[in-house]
Amino acid sequence: MSAALYNHEPEAYNEKGQMEKEQSARENPEDGHLRPVIADAFALREGEEGEDFKTLGWFKAGLVITCEAIALGTLSFPKNFYALGLVGGLIANAGFVVIAFFTSCVMVDFKLRYTHVLNAADAGQVMFGRIGFWVLGIAMIAKSIGLAASHVLAGKIAISTFDGGANCSIIWAVVIAVVSAGLSYHRKWSGLTWLSWISLTCIVTACIITMAGVATQNPERLIKNNVPIEWHAFNRDAKLVDSVGAVLNSVFAYGQVMAVLTFLPEMRRPETFKRSMLLSQIISLVLYSVVGSVCYVYAGQYVTSPALTMTTHTLRIVSYAFALVTIVVSGIVACNVGAKFWYTTSLRNSALLTSKGGQIVWLAIIGAMWTVGFVLAELIPFFGDLLTIVSALTSSWFVVGLGGIIWLHLYKKTGNPDGGYFKTPTRTFFFFFSVLLILISCALTPLGLYAAIEGIKSGYAKGKFHHPFSCAA
């Protein structure tokens, strides 16, 4: 067998003869502990002992990936609707649902053609060689650690609401990080199913309590300077920074697309993952739209993010009690995406990948990522704006642009007998649609960076930022 199969080099991933190489790797396994990289790394060879990772059905997969999507960020949608207007917010939400589902579907098609692919970084290597691998791999790690840090921050704010800030919030940040790392014990996505059920139940409950509280409370609680509550179909007075921030938040809400290629290797039938994403996108579309619309209509220009802070103190505590569960669990799923990339990249050539011994490696990776996340959350005073920067650089591409790039790769004519962008009217439509997605990402990235930089400047000017490792939540 060619040594190239073990070297993780671009030459091993070209389309010509790729299927034959995979078949050869499966039929002629080497002795010892090496696994052929070109083949499916999670597929146990005959007589090989190890844990079966291919245990995900489409419903379980949809449940877990929805858990990552539906988190505390759901209660930031009223603020998005204020920035874009009611109709504008609904259009943006629906538009990105369609885009996210398209990107997910082409990722599934990509996996079916290149069965060795374990994550988005592997897809980058197929298309662009080692540079593509490391660019997307580093982006996955950066975003996952950023999400871990954001959940540490959100968690400590939630707990500080319970004790009224009587205790140093750093203690609660440590608690959130340690609990999250401990609950990340399972290496397999299917191991998070029961946690996902609990998380989704809790966040939906928190959203219902918040909507009921905002809709039924005395509007005088929100009104300032006798200016009545107003809502608009489109916000014509919105500043560019606010509009860009709202659009990026909508994109960020569908950032679970980054995990698609990480879930597929553990699917019993990868092609059914399209159903998983359809389930996830329908739930997300309905919940984001309802929460955003109801809270915006009843609070108008006085909406806050997260929306639960608009309710009475008692309802806020009750809502945060439910939301805290989701803050922890959705953070686990988000962090595990980057951790799984690190894990499979380190062990894909080793029998440790599916053995019990690999559990130690997994826990070490999880511990490292949550430790870095905790430090970043406490060290950087403008972390919210830093997360916007990460989102502009990563989510805008994983959710939007990468779908277009993958489609163009799948249907290019070179070396592909079924290739050709203009063979049918449908192909022609998706060619222009893919190009449009790439252009949208090219626009969102610099605009998002601009919005984040302006936010940092404004925060310092207004004295909003605490010093590093501050006890204030």
TrEMBL record:
Kindly state which keywords UniProt assigns to this record, in alphabetical order.
Answer: Membrane, Transmembrane, Transmembrane helix
Annotated Basic and acidic residues bias: 8-31
Chain ranges of the Amino acid transporter transmembrane domain = 55-443
Q: Report the GO terms under cellular component.
A: membrane
Alphabetized GO MF terms? L-amino acid transmembrane transporter activity
Residue span of region Disordered: 1-31
**The keyword Membrane appears for this protein:** yes
Pfam families in the cross-refs: Aa_trans
Provide the topology term for how it sits in the membrane. Multi-pass membrane protein
PANTHER family linked: AMINO ACID TRANSPORTER, AMINO ACID TRANSPORTER (EUROFUNG)-RELATED
Q: Which family does it belong to?
A: Belongs to the amino acid/polyamine transporter 2 family.
Q: What is this protein called?
A: Neutral amino acid permease
Natural source organism: Rhodotorula toruloides (strain NP11) (Yeast)
